[in-house]
Amino acid sequence: MREVVTVQVGDFANFVGSHFWNFQDELLGLAEDPGADPVFRTAALDMDVLYRAGETHQGVATYCPRLVSVGSRGSLGSLSSSGTLGSSSAAADQAHVATWSGNVTRSASKPHEQNLFLQSLSEDQNPSTSSGPNNSQKSIEDKDLIASLETGVKFWTDYSKVQYHPQSLYELHGSWTDFDKFDNYGAGREVVSEWSQMEEMNERLRFFVEECDHIQGIQLIVDDSGGFSSVAAQYLESIADDYTHTPVLLYCARDPVSYGSRRNQRESIIRSLHDAVSFSKLSSFSNLMVPIGLPSLSYFSPLLSIQDEKRFHSSAICAAAIHSVTVPFRQQHVSPASDLAHSSGNLDIGELVHMISDQGRLNMVTALDVAMPAPSLTDINDLGNLQTSLRSLTPEISDDDEDPYAIESLVVHGAMDAGGHRASMLQVKDYVYSAFEGRPTKPKFSHLSVSQCPLPIPLPFPSIFGSSIGRHGEILRDHSEGTRPKGSLDVVSVPMAARLRSSNAVLPFIERRSVSLQKLGVARGSLGSQVLRDWGFGKEEVEDMGEHLAKLLRPFYPEMELTSDSD
Q1: Which residues make beta-bridge pairs with 64?
Q2: I need a surface site. Which of 185, 224, 226, 538 has the fewest CB within 10 A?
Q3: Polar residues bias: where (predicted)?
């Protein structure tokens, strides 16, 4: 067994995670559905990598994500912090303080009501409470569910259909905190230091890690746009201390709304310093870092209709990309014949980290590119070929992707051939290798992972697919219907391609943060230096952060290394 433990920190990270786990839940259901595409039953994906088997106190078997989710107080909506398997916290409702014998006044907010989608899940789990509608009526109801989600998602739990273990969901306590102002690294640093909740978060992670037979790594999805980046940095530091030899793969996710517009100079300086400090701290305690999230996704693909103001939409794209690049972690080690038939190129997190960050320039900041849906395998000179369809989800990177020192990991799963049928492993490999041969500058090293299993589209997926997308995600050549968005009911699966890329394309992303810290945070008496002092950073710690960012730049500027040695 090569288990992966997942950690989600921050509200948008949990929005992403909710979609991610819905994909996994859909895969589990389709693998047992005799009416589903046979490719899901022969996917050669080991779901035990991400999930743990157990049972409740009543002896009911369970299968839950190996997950720790950290969010703000009240971010769970109608879901209890004890998860979907936890007992109702009647005991917790009884206010009891051993050192207090006086009267106790209890204040409780009105619980959030379940939306239409969650109500339908409850009915499906308890058929006796529903009237058992026929298929046509069910189809109408499903369309209503999608419509309600498009207009009514407030919490990431509003569209989650996964069972969560009682140890999985953790809310940062303290109703006095104004989370609307929890928008910079300093705010988060103050919260963590005052609440001293890190040990409880560590215990929850330890619960999942210690029951693993042979953990391959820890993957974190972090909302680094505000105070949660500080919470995550301290969590990562604890992880680095407790699990020294366990690889850590970090996805730093931002939704388009978080970019916003800065109204004055002070806000711009605070945002720039936040980006620099957050990047320095988070990268210090991870082995491979993948920034995700563009200022706008509305123009991400002409085949998709994405509304930037909806986290329900933007998080779905991020989750699909993360699902795709993690497919190699779950591919089973099977016999050569089966491997050739269904999947190839499996990796674990440690192997990916070594391949991407320990070769080439020794760069640990990686760009993420995705094609959703991936085009069919047509003539290599077609404008819709796989290489040109990949679009970056990493912000502030260079458009120039021709780098002779680049290291790439490409994953293609569920690809279709020119006839609209599922492509074989050999077809995909031949197509990709031909595309590499046609590139002006080849990367130093490229790894290819292939699976025939596409991305399943569950019911609570947003309505982002255009009318030029077929039922199985193939790109239809007849565009006469325009690009009217279709519901997720119309698309049951999508072929995907995703690429992690370590190259000089990420240089602007790193350089901007290094320059911001040097220009804004170092000068004595400046507004920036005062902001950093207010956040609790002394001069030496600021210098250490600056040195760390300079270290991340050195692989791209060898002369910096020479200067450092001579000094």
Answers
A1: 52
A2: 538
A3: 121-138
H or E element, residue 26 = helix 11-31
pLDDT of residue 262: 66
Dmax over CA atoms of the chain, in Å, equals 80
Of the candidates 256, 218, 495, 556, which has an alpha carbon nearest to the alpha carbon of residue 393? Answer: 256
Domain ranges of the chain: 3-84+152-259, 341-501, 509-560
At 211, give phi and psi (nearest 5°). Answer: -90, 0
Phi/psi region, residue 362 (left: phi>0; alpha: psi -120 to 50; beta: rest), is: left
- Hunting for tokens 């207090």 — which residue is that? 100
CA distance 171 to 154: 17
Nearest to 283 by CA among 540, 68, 547: 547
Q: What is the DSSP letter of 331?
A: B
Contact indicator for 489, 497 with CB cutoff of 8 Å: no
Angle at 243 between CA 240 and CA 244, to 5 degrees: 65
Q: What is the CATH number of domain 3-84+152-259?
A: 3.40.50.1440
Structural contact between residues 457 and 491, judged by C-beta atoms closer than 8 angstroms:
yes
Instruction: Tokens for 57, please give them.
Output: 């106190």
Residue pair 280/289 in contact (Cβ under 8 Å)? The answer is no
What would the DSSP string read from start to end of 415-447?
-BBTTSSBPPHHHHHHHHHHHHHTSSS--SEEE
Token pair of 440, please? 């002006």
Average pLDDT over residues 114-121: 84
Determine contact, residues 73/171, Cβ cutoff 8 Å: yes
Task: Return the higher-pLDDT residue of 397 and 484.
Answer: 397
| Beta strand segments in 103-245, E | 169-172, 217-223
| Tokens linked to 65 | 């994500």
The mean of the pLDDT values for the chain is 84
Q: Which residue has the higher pLDDT, 377 or 217?
A: 217
Task: Tell me the backbone φ, ψ of residue 316, rounded to 5 degrees.
Answer: -65, -40
230-239, 253-262, 331-340, 458-467, range with the lowest pLDDT = 331-340
